[in-house]
User: What shape does this take?
Amino acid sequence: MTRESTLRFGAQTDEVTSLLRIVNLVRTGEATTRPEIGRVTGLGRGVVTQRVDQAIDMGFLADGEFGPSSGGRAPRTLRFRSEQGRIVVCALGALHIRVGIASLDGDIIDHSHEQWDIAKGPAETIEQALEMLDGILARHPDVPVWGVAVGIPGPVDFESGRPVAPPIMPGWNGFDVRRRFEQRFDAPTWVDNDVNLLVFSERARRDEDTLDLIFCKVGSGIGAGLLSRGRIHRGANGAAGDIGHVRVRDSDAQCRCGKIGCLEAEAGGWALVRDAELAVAEGGGGALARLVDGGAPITPEAIAVSAMDGDALAISLIQRSARLVGESIAALVNMFNPGVIVVGGAVSSAGEVFLAEIRQRVYELSLPLATRDLQIVRSLGDEKEPLRGGAEMVREQLFDATFPRWFADGRPTITEVMAAS
Assistant: This one.
């Protein structure tokens, strides 16, 4: 009878509202016993018992261990059944594919990584990602997929899940990325910029509800993700934070986007590789020249490592990149006034060689009030960061944005969830 009653919920009745709140209280850990739920919600003991029984019957909650006693009988804790569904994450980079699966509490269960050129186009790239995901899923019990996150290295219209004129992704403009994943997993899918996934990961790690943060990724390309009072700021068309194509004064460098003088064309990883190869060809020595002599390619990672090892050419390239990136971040600081700036990406792996220059330019060029409490730090550099961020994005969409729409069905469906997005 409970299930039939639940399925009739068509509006935000008091019963539905309290049920939703109780599930989310347990899911977030804010209240994990029946007495705690009663204190937080103000509901009577009988109502709490009834709602908890409904949530258990629907499969959202389960009884856990006994909690500490406050004088009487120890209360039994409740837990959210995070094992009942999976989150699939596909993080596409300019030169790699990273995929993984997570439980509904955001923990990464398994993951895989391969080198890949995003310029191969959407059909071949997505097919490769799906093949990698099939390999992961085959190693684990058959559990329904509740949501999918896809990150791409370019601007995205978040509402439609389509890339918008991505500079380094030929053939991707307007491509319906969401459709292929929804067909494969029969689950709602969200597509976002790859740096936004890193922002979600930082937000989850810091566990601050009202955080103002900028994540600046300096890898092959350059991009930024903006977090305002704990919420991702994507802009009107998904282009917010695309600082890689801000104009650098007096630059005449050709950018991959077709324009002249973009920050990425002067300070991005691919630009550093270009300049390093040119310097070596003109007779430059050191670690990078030895790399070329040994038949190995120069990469942004190799430049960063060589800079940390004291190579003069690599240090000059890294420091110039950091100065230019710092100038663009300073403009964001004056306008956005974040509390934290996190710098990540392959070029930033040069550590303090890179970060010190960014700090200097930001503090020189930003208003004193905007930098008074500002922290500028490196990201953890964990390869699973984009996967955790993708899982967090899906969790936000499922449980914060659309939960009331599909709650009565017991699990999300494409029709209910995407109609609410």
User: Anything to note?
Assistant: DSSP finds 17 helices and 14 strands in the chain. The longest strand covers residues 96-103. The radius of gyration is 24 Å.
